[in-house]
Amino acid sequence: MKNSGKQKISYNELLERVKELEQENESMAERAGEVLLLSILGDTISTLEEKQELMEELLEKISILKYIPWCSCYELVNGKYKLVECYVEAPYKNQCPKEIVLSKGAFGEIQEKGIYCGYVNGIIENKYELPVTEKTELLIIKFQNNWIKNGIFLFMDEKKRYSLKTKILVVRQAINMVLERIEKLSYIKQIEQLNKGLEIRVVERTKALSQINSKLLNEIEERKAIEEELRLAKNKAEDSDKLKSVFLANMSHEIRTPMNAIVGFSELMESGTCEESELKEFSRLIYGNSLSLLNLINDLLDFSKIEANQLTLHCACFNINQILDDVNSLGMMLLKQYKKNNIKIEVRKSSPDNSAIIFTDGLRLKQILINLLSNAIKFSFQGVVVIEYKMNRRSVDFSVEDNGIGIAAEKQSLIFNRFSRVSDDITKPIAGNGLGLAISKTLVEMLGGKISVESSIGQGSIFRFDILSKAVCGENCIVYK
Ligand code: ADP
């Protein structure tokens, strides 16, 4: 026989070779299984968003691809492992305990080495016993991640051809892959949570800022209002200053005019060159001018008392008719003094003497009426000045009407202010200090009433006021101080 050149292989060698090939085959199959598992898992886990579902998917895939009927996952809480997820087939279906406790030995080994592989005896405490037979093999792998701080994967099988440990080792990579994915999901959830928290804080901050903003706007408004108030107060102060200067200029005129008359006529009388009729006329003029001065001084005193809040009333029973008679007599004198022969004074007494008695400050009432009457005479050149009153149950209405020059509508609200005169031209022929109506208004208000004017230029004016009469007194009423 021709030698083929090939060496003969012994039977034993052949057997060895076959074994080697079989092992290679097996590890190839193993690798193929691993690659298959990873690729299937890889596809699935990229679309899953729930940790629970990921775990379920992992256990299911391992169970199917590795022919392991029991795959479960537990989390360590207070010394017990609580079931997170499981995938079990017959004969274990519906037998997965909700929690288990590992024996001390198994627990220590898992904590130390991260893996436990062996037969069942004494691994799980009795009351949580798993449905195992003598052949049952158990593999426990420890894991830790963000979601489950301390957990185990538990695999169970009836040992057949390959040990559970060999089978499962390839699975470790798959487990890590899923756990990584879970970790990522946890971070994403955390970031989402943080984001939400941030959004809430941003909303709250925006709200707080807008509140501060509107507070600031309010403050600006308030400040503007205060500035406006200050501006008005400043204007008022300036006006009042101006009025005071006009008043002082006016006052010196008011004092000098009667003083000059008094001094001038006294000198003439002293010179001894005057006739009897002239002497009479001069003494009348001196008397009239002295009265003007006296009035001015009285007004100034009243005014300073009002300013110092020291004006007091002295109320008693007074007869209005009597007061009007006195006012009338003074009016007649003024007519003579101002040489207003074309003016008549008419006093209308609406109540008889015995029932025209009221309780008030009669002197102040007379002062108001004289103020109004002297203005009516001063600012009229002809016609009648009518003074009248009407008694009510608890008050009395008075009016003084003239046919004089009248007051422009826009000035009517000003004339009751202190120092105010419709025209501040001190060269005008009509004398006055601008205090009379301000004093009258204060007095009327103190007597419990109000004063007003109705007037039109060239037609005349009518001043009305009322006062309270606390009690209508009888003839013999007592005078109260
Ligand atoms: P005065 O001493 O200047 O009269 P008043 O306070 O009594 O001061 O009056 C203020 C101003 O009101 C007067 O200067 C005058 O311009 C106006 N007035 C007051 N009464 C009359 C009136 N009966 N007719 C026209 N003007 C009047």
Provide structural commentary.
There is one protein chain. With 481 residues, the chain is α+β, with helices and mostly antiparallel strands. It is built from eight helices and 13 strands. The strands form three sheets. A six-stranded antiparallel β-sheet has the order 3-2-1-6-5-4, with helices on both faces. Strands 8-10-11-13-12 form a five-stranded mixed β-sheet. A two-stranded antiparallel ribbon has the order 7-9. A hairpin with a 3-residue loop joins strand 10 and strand 11. The C terminus is likely disordered. The site of adenosine-5'-diphosphate has 21 residues, from helix 7 and helix 8.
In short:
The chain is of the alpha+beta class and 481 residues long.
How helix-rich are the residues, as a percent range? Answer: 40-55%
Count the E strands: 13
Bound ligands, each once: adenosine-5'-diphosphate
The SSE order reads: HHEEEHEEEHHEHEEHEEHEE
Q: How far apart lie the N and C ends?
A: 172 Å
Beta fraction: 15-25%
- State the major sheet: 6 strands, antiparallel
The pLDDT mean sits at 84
Tell me, what's the shape? rod-shaped
Features:
single chain; 481 residues; alpha+beta; six-stranded antiparallel β-sheet; 51% helix; binds adenosine-5'-diphosphate
SSE topology sketch:
Elements: H1 11-45, H2 51-65, E1 70-77, E2 80-88, E3 99-100, H3 104-113, E4 115-119, E5 136-143, E6 151-158, H4 164-270, H5 276-307, E7 316-319, H6 320-337, E8 343-348, E9 357-360, H7 362-378, E10 383-391, E11 395-401, H8 436-446, E12 451-456, E13 460-468
Parallel strand pairs: 8-10
Antiparallel strand pairs: 1-2, 1-6, 2-3, 4-5, 5-6, 7-9, 10-11, 11-13, 12-13
Bound molecules: adenosine-5'-diphosphate.
Adenosine-5'-diphosphate is lined by residues 371, 375-376, 379, 402, 404-407, 415, 420-422, 432-438, 461.
